[in-house]
Design brief:
Strand content of chain A: 5-15%
Helix content of chain B: 40-55%
Largest interface: A-B, 18 and 23 residues
Oligomer: heterodimer
Shape of chain B: elongated
Order of helices and strands of chain A: HEHHEEH
Radius of gyration of chain A: 16 Å
Number of helices of chain B: 27
Structural class of chain A: alpha+beta
Strand order of the largest sheet of chain A: 1-3-2
Largest sheet of chain A: 3 strands, antiparallel
Largest sheet of chain B: 10 strands, mixed
Radius of gyration of chain B: 39 Å
């Protein structure tokens, strides 16, 4: 498996989780979300416009996020995404699943390397 | 600053999103790209590089659309307010419906009024249509009813008295043998039989029928069997087939009854079958004059008659029903039948010709009811039209409010067609809601109508709400919706957006066009209600005239009691006479009784015995010399009791019993002995063979058969000219007080003499008269009801339009007043403007009614279709109601305070 393909697959599986967890604490706009993902992953994960927004709209359509136009003084208006009650419970279950998965992987790899 | 949006929009184009959604996405993405660009500039990149790096975020030409396509599909539809033509027809309709629902919810008062008036209009129409459907449209409940026809005999020499007669038994036998045009022929005659049921002694109405009758009709018993051919003969006829309703009511639908014996006329009859519930034998009024069938038959029994005992030219009282062979036309069958009739006449050798008439059963049964029912349908249709007009007016009043909305939508790209569709969807929704409620109302209305309808209306039992009625209700709901919705929709759609937006919402006044449209609608409403009122008025006057007709007797204070003499206990005329003598003597002594008499058949209670009468010297071979007269057997006191005046001579007395004496009516005297004194003259009467009577007196003419037919020739006698039967009859009692008060005493007196004699009816004579005009009264009441509804709706319409116009012109009225117009000037102006369409409508209505009146001429009695009193009354009523409906809002106009009105701006 080459590097790019694995990255794409990885992104697909976890992108939803990343976005949901980024808006958990407070509403954020699209650019902010993409910047945070890039920064926190040390530049290893990046979302471009063409992939980020379809994803945001899909989450919004599922009712996990709600987008709202907000106009702050001196700035152009931006669309802020907030986690919904349903989104919050989806995030919780995805996180739990993810942790269990990682823990499982760790147990396997540690046992093999031990 | 770089332009991001064109780049984004180009990439979004393949998705064909609604423009609003497209703009929203472009906004958000452009902001993102701008943020990225600004950030890159901060890292000291050149503008050119920063721009290209930012654009790279869109990842080529197609990736964005590709990513968005699954998400955006079916999500954001075009917002309704924009109203741009969408490629998805159905999605638009759902939107329209949703939007219409929202609009209706926003004005619940308007919605409630609209739905309720529609429900009433559609409900009334559906109810009347279900009658038309059940009575006129639905095929008769027999197999291939179009092949069935009624055969009636014509004796050309007697057509001036009776155009046609029912059939006689010998003819039937010959027809069955000789005629090839018919697959089968059956005959029937109404009878009644004494029966002691669960509720005591009753006279059970039934029919004796040839074994071929049910086969001809294509009806087969639901249980048991049909009669066999050999059971037509006398002595083998002790079998009955029960109708379904009698089987249910008397035998609790017990299937084991088949094969058991029941007692009728004190004789034992075996039940051989039970008819299906769908079987409805036509009643007398449906089978032509001189037949005698009860509307509610209880049983059929075999003929049991020996045809050779019958006069070839007499006893014409069987209803004959034939089934034409497939492919044989009425004309072919008739020409064959007439050949056979000529042979019968030749063999009979009575110097009379014989011909026949074949009428399709359906038109014979339904003919008389058709005109009345169609009139009612037209009347109730007119009411619905008025409902439409009122709703159109209500919607037109809302047009100015909707114009702004329409203007905005047009400005945003909505086409006119789309606006019209949206408006029509709203009226359609109202139509559907009103229609649904209307069907519910109609289901109640139908049972009320059937209960209220007179027995003369044929096939009432078959009236119900079926698929066709439902379809009718749905179609009229939709058509109604289209009718009242199209004008306002057109008005809204033809708004110039700029005009509507320029003027403020409050200032959007009615255009001159809208106002004249509303006025013409008012005119239409007034015209329709005027027509209905005039026609209903004509019906009412007809009925009043009819009830005022001089019947020739005094019905007030008369109690009429019908009795039937069971043949076992009363085998002879003499036995019957003894019974009546005893009863009359007993009743005469009751307190409060002034006089009492009896007659074998009451006036206005149906046709009685009819026979030929003439002078002894007249050539008996020429039937045209012998007019037909109605015969009655009556006691001597009958005449004084009924207050029928003796014009000449005297009435027979008890001492005359056994002598062949006759009392005749004035009309008979004038016809038989014109200009001469009939007293003491002899006459011959063909009643069971020619018999000679002496005329001893002349009494006044009375209405015998129908209130609306001039009096017929009457012959009264004290005894039957033969002794082998006792006649049932009516005992008439003249009381001092309310006749109903004597009912129980009379009943008791009869029971004391013979408790086995059933009393079949006991009611004041006035009720007999009233019942004889039931059909007219029913028609009149419905016509009047519809007319009053129409007038009420029209007055609401006038009130609404004038009131609304005053409301909208408040400011104008204020200015006029400020400029010195007197209050009564304003009042006059508003009244004039309101009354103009009323006057025009009134005139149009009167003219239309003059034409429509001719169509219903045959439903009227003793009144012309352009009766000036009716016309003048209606004109006054409509003008008065119109004036009141205009005056109330006009007075409000008068009270306008100029200061307040101007400040209102």
């Amino acid at each position: 498996m080459d590097e790019t393909t694995s990255q794409v697959e990885w992104k697909k599986g976890s992108a939803e989780l990343l976005i949901l967890s980024l808006v958990e604490a407070r509403p954020r706009h699209g650019y902010e979300i993409s910047k945070l993902i890039e920064q926190r992953s040390g530049g290893s994960v990046r979302f471009h416009v063409a992939s980020l927004y379809p994803l945001l709209y899909r989450l919004e359509r599922r009712g996990w996020l709600v987008g709202r136009w907000v106009e702050k003084s001196g700035q152009r208006r931006r669309r802020y995404y907030r986690l919904t009650r349903q989104g919050r419970s989806v995030l919780a279950s995805q996180l739990r699943g993810w942790r269990e998965f990682v823990a499982g992987i760790n147990r396997i790899t540690e046992a093999e390397n031990a | 600053m770089p332009e991001w949006k064109p780049e984004i929009l180009r990439r979004l184009a393949p998705l064909k999103l609604s423009s609003a959604r497209e703009a929203e996405i472009a906004d958000e993405l452009a902001q993102h790209l701008e943020d990225r660009y600004q950030e890159l500039l901060l890292t000291r990149q050149s503008e050119d590089t920063a721009f290209r790096t930012a654009i790279d975020e869109l990842e080529g030409e197609y990736l964005l659309a590709q990513g968005l396509r699954p998400v955006e599909r079916d999500w954001y539809r075009e917002p309704v307010a924009v109203g741009k033509d969408s490629s998805n027809v159905f999605s638009g309709i759902f939107q329209d419906l949703r939007y219409a629902l929202r609009m209706l919810q926003k004005s619940p008062g308007f919605t409630a009024i609209a739905v309720l008036t529609l429900a009433l209009g559609i409900g009334a129409n559906t109810a009347i249509f279900s009658m038309v459907n059940g009575v006129l449209l639905r095929p008769l409940a027999f197999q291939q009813p179009q092949q069935l026809c009624v055969i009636r005999e014509i004796i050309p020499q007697l057509t001036k008295f009776y155009p046609t007669f029912p059939a006689n038994l010998p003819s039937f036998r010959i027809w069955k043998r000789e005629l090839h045009s018919f697959e089968n022929i059956g005959i029937a005659n109404g009878i009644s039989i004494h029966f002691i049921g669960r509720g005591g002694a009753i006279e059970l109405p039934g029919a004796k029928v040839s074994s071929s009758l049910l086969e001809t009709l294509g009806t087969y018993p639901a249980l048991g069997r049909n009669f066999r051919a050999d059971e037509d003969d006398p002595g083998r006829d002790h079998e009955v087939i029960l109708t379904n309703s009698f089987w249910r009511s008397e035998f609790q639908a017990d299937p084991a009854i088949v094969g058991k014996a029941i007692t009728l006329n004190s004789e034992s009859f075996e039940v051989v079958g039970v008819l299906p519930a769908s079987f409805h034998f036509p009643q007398s009024s449906e089978l032509g004059a001189l037949t005698n069938f009860s509307p509610r038959l209880a049983f059929l029994k075999p003929l049991g008659e020996d045809a050779s005992q019958f006069d070839a030219m007499g006893d014409l009282d069987y209803a004959a029903i034939g089934r034409l062979r497939a492919g044989v036309s009425l004309a072919q069958a008739l020409s064959e039948l007439n050949v056979v009739q000529a042979q019968i006449a030749k063999q009979a050798n009575e110097h009379m010709d014989l011909r026949a008439e074949i009428i399709p059963l359906a038109s014979e049964v339904l003919g008389p009811a058709r005109q009345g029912l169609l009139f009612l349908l037209a009347a109730v249709g007119a009411v619905l039209l008025i409902v439409c007009v009122n709703l159109a007016n209500l919607l037109l009043a809302r047009v100015p409010r909707r114009m702004r909305e329409a203007a905005i939508r047009t400005a945003l790209g909505a086409s006119r067609a789309r606006l019209v569709r949206q408006m029509l969807t709203e009226s359609l929704l109202l139509g559907i809601l009103g229609g649904a409620l209307g069907i519910l109302l109609a289901s109640f209305g139908v049972s009320t109508l059937v209960r209220a309808a007179p027995p003369g209306v044929p096939r009432l039992a078959e009236v119900s709400i079926d698929g066709r009625v439902l379809l009718f209700a749905i179609v009229i709901s939709v058509v109604t919706a289209a009718l009242f919705g199209i004008l306002p929709a057109w008005q809204v759609a033809h708004t110039e957006p700029l005009d509507a937006l320029k003027s403020g919402a409050t200032n959007t006044t009615e255009s001159r066009r809208t106002r004249s449209l509303r006025s013409s609608l008012i005119g239409l409403e007034v015209a329709l209600s005027t027509v209905l009122l005039i026609l209903a008025g004509l019906f009412t006057s007809s009925l009043v005239h009819l009830l005022r007709v001089n019947t020739g007797f005094t019905a007030e204070h008369i109690l009429a009691t019908d009795v039937d003499l069971p043949p076992r206990s009363y085998p002879s005329n003499a036995a019957g006479q003894r019974f009546y003598d005893q009863v009359l003597a007993a009743i005469r002594t009751l307190p409060g009784v002034r006089s009492v008499g009896w007659i074998n058949q009451l006036p206005l209670a149906g046709e009685g015995s009819v026979s030929a009468i003439g002078l002894p010297s007249t050539n008996k071979t020429d039937a045209s010399n012998f007019p037909l007269a109605d015969f009655r057997v009556a006691s001597p006191d009958y005449f004084s009791t009924m207050e029928i005046p003796v014009i000449a001579g005297r009435i027979y007395t008890a001492a005359d019993r056994g002598r062949k004496l006759a009392v005749i009516s004035q009309r008979a005297a004038e016809r038989l002995w014109p200009g001469n004194d009939p007293n003491g003259q002899m006459c011959v009467i063909n009643w069971g063979g020619w018999k000679t009577f002496q005329v001893i007196g002349v009494v006044g003419d009375i209405r015998t058969v129908q209130m609306d037919k001039s009096p017929v020739m009457m012959v009264y006698m004290q005894d039957l000219p033969f002794d082998n039967v006792a006649l049932g009859g009516s005992i008439v009692v003249r009381t001092m007080m309310d006749p109903s008060g004597a009912a129980s005493a009379v009943r008791e007196a009869i029971n004391k003499i013979d408790s086995n004699v059933p009393i079949t009816a006991l009611r004041p004579m006035t009720e007999v008269i009233s019942k004889s005009v039931d059909t007219r009264r029913f028609q009149m009441r419905l016509a009047l009801l519809f007319a009053v509804c129409a007038l009420f709706l029209a007055s609401l319409g006038i009130f609404g339009v004038v009131g609304y116009s005053v409301e909208r012109r408040r400011q104008e009225l204020g200015i006029r007043m400020a400029l010195g117009a007197a209050r009564h000037d304003l009042l006059r102006m508003v009244l004039r403007q309101g009354m103009t369409p009323v006057t025009v409508g009134l005139a149009a209505g009167v003219v239309t009614a003059l034409f429509a009146g001719r169509l219903i001429g045959s439903l009227l009695f003793d009144i012309s279709a352009n009766d000036p009193v009716t016309l003048a009354t209606v004109v006054l009523v409509v003008a008065g109601v119109g004036l009141v409906a205009c005056f109330v809002p006009a007075r409000r106009a008068m009270r306008v305070d100029p200061i307040v009105a101007l400040r209102y701006e």
